[in-house]
Amino acid sequence: MPLTHGVEPLASLTRPPVGKILTLGQRGNDLFRGESHTNARRIYGGQTLGQALVAAGRTVERDHNPHSLHGHFIHPGRSDLPVDYIVERVRDGGSFTTRLVRALQNDRTILLATASFQRDEDGLTHQDTATTPAPVPENLPRFEDSLDASDPGDAQWLSQLMSNVGVEFRFPEEYPRLANRRGRRLPPRQRAWIRTPSRIGDESLLHAAGFAYCSDLFLLSSALPPHARHIDTPGLKLASLDHTVWLHAPFRADEWHLYEQHGYWMGGGRGIGRGRLYNRNGTLMASTMQEGLLRFR
Predict the structure, then answer these.
(1) Which among 34, 35, 85, 95 has a CA at the least distance from the CA of 59?
(2) Is residue 74 part of a domain?
(3) Which pLDDT score is estimated for 151?
């Protein structure tokens, strides 16, 4: 039975195939092409981040693994057109390798990214951050099962999200969007267990790119709860401006990790969100930062 009239049943929806999205075609020396494999009007930002990292990694020696990705979203992309990734070999060093990637669609730049890779080495280690315990994802309901089936706004939003973004997520606490829709103000924090819904192979580059793909989900919206607003609030214009991913250790993006997000600043029509990704043992695996447009008319 559908959630609401005019909304496709969630049980019949399939998320986009992330492994296929991250599989790029090579069209020349340091030139790669990616596809969206969705019916969305615009390209999900995490797609270009993940594809840009794969394109950069295909030009790097296999003993160098990605440790940082910095992207600037220049223009929105269309999902019905392919994206070409031009890689510039900025530096090839013994320890570090740097690449500049330009994502083009119809000769228009939609993303500029730099990616850095490092040869594995030992060193001092610590983490000055921790997460609070959360129920394991296997004991949490799927997010689509936790919504009120009588609310057409939430049903429509989730239907579009599941059709266009290949990320599975489960919230250990109530997702702030739901409280914001009731007019309740909350601290600018949220967290969810996330993973890609299908396996994406064993190559470490693809898992780093898989998290880059996932990392764009919800991050900017973490700045909205103190204002009792959400991403579908009438009059809101939301767009990612820049996005950074730091990878601290290899991990599988198709396994559950707890993604904590903190929207610690908002002003001037912009907001900043910070993310931290933990494994089940509480080890910090990756960090993210994103600035975006949050303009209300």
Answers:
(1) 85
(2) yes
(3) 64
pLDDT interval class at 178 (50, 70, 90)? confident
Give φ, ψ of 66 to 5 degrees: -65, 140
Q: Please provide the size of the chain in residues.
A: 297
Q: Write down the pTM of the prediction.
A: 0.94
Q: In the chain, how many domains are there? A: 1
Q: Known catalytic residue: 216?
A: yes
Q: Using an 8 Å Cβ cutoff, are 184 and 174 in contact? A: no
Q: Average pLDDT, stretch 259-282?
A: 98
Average pLDDT over residues 130-150: 86
Is-catalytic flag, 122?
A: no
Two structure tokens written together for 201: 């192979």
Least confident of 113-127, 169-183, 272-286: 169-183
Burial of 183 (0-12, 13-18, 19+ CB in 10 A): exposed
On whether residue 62 sits in a domain, the answer given is yes
Which one of 47, 216, 221, 261 is the catalytic residue? Answer: 216
CA gap 225, 285 in Å, rounded: 26
Residue 3 located in a structural domain: no
Active-site entry in 36, 240, 254, 261: 240
In which domain, by residue range, is 254 found? 10-119+138-296
User: Is 240 assigned a catalytic role?
Assistant: yes
Q: Cα–Cα distances in Å, from 147 out to 139, 141, 171? A: 17, 10, 12
* Cα–Cα dist 224/270, whole Å: 11
